[in-house]
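Hey L., structure's done. Input below.
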Amino acid sequence: MLIKHSSCLFSRLVVNRTSVVVASFHKESRHKENYGWSSDKFQFLQESPVPTDVFQQSLPKLSVPKLEQTCERYLASQRPLLSSKEFSNTKNIVDHFLRNVGGELNDRLVRSDAARKDSSFITEPWFDMYLADRSPVSLTHNPGLSLVKVGKDSSHESCDPCLRAANLLMSALRFHKTLQEKKLYPSVHHMVPSETNNAIFWNKVKEMPENIATQLSIKLKVSPIDMSQVF
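Output:
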């Protein structure tokens, strides 16, 4: 892919299975030397000392709640919002659901959960809800992307849409390769960051058997987070 913009910068992005290479040329460039695009520091966004999926095998699964309990909780959430007549009608609908199709759907969910070994029953529909939705992202979802202006005015080359698109694509490819090579840091919640958000903790994780890594990390006050959505 060849990209040109107003300040005569040409960037060719070459992607293959083993590397991401960017060759850049600028008539006013101060960096004539080798950029080191093939170096690990550029090729990977992170270099985790442990595999990205180190906790996946030992993560506990969410249990499928009882159908009756789910219906009771739903009715309890509706009670303050509805009039007596509206609530009575809603309760009749829920009771009809329980007596008929509800049981069959619940059995299908339980069977599906039993066959899913890598994540909880809610994971796939939860992420599909976001990925399949075609509503305006900025109005209905919280993830966002902001492109920061580097220069003092809009004429700065960092504001060029072609250059921004190239940088965005390049970063996405670097993320993808980092994930493929399992060099992305596992997602965790440090309950006491001052004590565990450091190399010492990750060196301890390296010594943990993967089938109990989550449980051992929790004892160190670090809670691993399910990352099945990125694999």
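The first strand starts at residue 2 and ends at 4. The domain at 46-59+182-231 is CATH 1.20.1280.180 (Monooxygenase).

-- N.
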